# Entry
Amino acid sequence: MAARHAIPVIYQDREHAEVGGLMSYGASIGDAYRHVGVYTGRILKGAKPADLPVVQSTKFEFVINLPTARALGIEIPPTLLARADEVIE
# Structure
């Protein structure tokens, strides 16, 4: 819908930027899976899930899709491109 109406949108998941979204900024999925693995290991070693602390992601990814920006007629400033973790050409 956003593409059909030429509305620039920033998404939470990098997958949206990979398939044509303008930008994404959100927690790294790989980092989240690592936290799941650590929690699973603790539980398998006998820890009670209720006793485990709540952990938030500390790694975030910023992805920019340049073909989408061009299609929308948006020029991304070089300083913003330099801050991106990944720029899709």
Q: What stands out?
A: The longest strand covers residues 60-65. The beta strands are 10-11, 23-27, 60-65, 86-88. The CA atoms of residues 48 and 65 lie 43 Å apart. The longest helix spans residues 29-44.
